[in-house]
């Protein structure tokens, strides 16, 4: 089976982790498939991307079985490929939303944190056991999402987080009620699809670039995005559509 599936319909691209027999553990072919898949999403047909998983587990972390018999050079190359896959998700010009409905472990958390935000069911759990597996991971994105001290506690203890605590810490953006994850996904998709694609893309870029600099430089980044949006000319349609909705 393909380790990652891609389905496009109605402007929505669904990217599905597809190793349910291995609890969607992240191996080298899956890393490479994520890279290829996200490279194929930069087209005008796609308005937003959903990242989901086949089976009851979103991702059980790195597939440590594939490292058996490999040397340190192979492991290093494998880790660099996983970093490239996470970055491909993060750098996608479209809004990318993770949809979680089950355990999220280690590398699965990296995938989820690489998305723009996370929708989750009450069945979702998080765990970052890398140090307990004798490896290192999740040291950078995790602290940026939940803070340094909380990240250290989760990494040092390897304990499991329930969906509600994950929502409180910011790992989960919206937590669905029991049995209502699909409804939340549909509402989110409709809300995002309602916005002009160029404005969304430039907004995402401005937020991401602004995170890495000072407020004054961030304002310059936003002004640059505004200028690009004005130069494209299609901003008038968005203003007119908004005015028409308000007038109804």
Question: How is this structure best described in words?
Answer:
- The structure is a single chain.
- This protein is α/β, with parallel strands linked by helices.
- It has 2 domains: 4-193, 2-enoyl-CoA Hydratase, Chain A, domain 1 (Alpha-Beta Complex); 197-247, Orthogonal Bundle (Lyase 2-enoyl-coa Hydratase, Chain  A, domain 2), CATH 1.10.12.
- It is 49% helix and 15% strand.
- The chain contains 10 helices and 9 strands.
- Helix 1 (28-39) links the parallel strand 2 and strand 3.
- The chain is globular and about 60 Å long.
- The relative contact order is 0.10.
Secondary-structure blueprint of this entry?
Blueprint: E1 4-9, E2 12-17, H1 28-39, E3 48-53, H2 72-91, E4 96-100, E5 103-105, H3 107-114, E6 117-120, E7 125-127, H4 141-146, H5 148-157, E8 160-161, H6 163-169, E9 174-175, H7 181-193, H8 197-210, H9 215-232, H10 235-247
Parallel strand pairs: 2-3, 3-4, 4-6, 5-7, 6-9
Antiparallel strand pairs: 1-2, 7-8
Helix pairs in contact: 1-2, 8-9
List key phrases describing it.
3-stranded mixed sheet; catalytic activity; ClpP/crotonase-like_dom_sf; Enoyl-CoA hydratase; 6-stranded mixed sheet; 248 residues; alpha/beta; Lyase 2-enoyl-coa Hydratase, Chain  A, domain 2; Enoyl-CoA_hydra/iso; 2-enoyl-CoA Hydratase, Chain A, domain 1
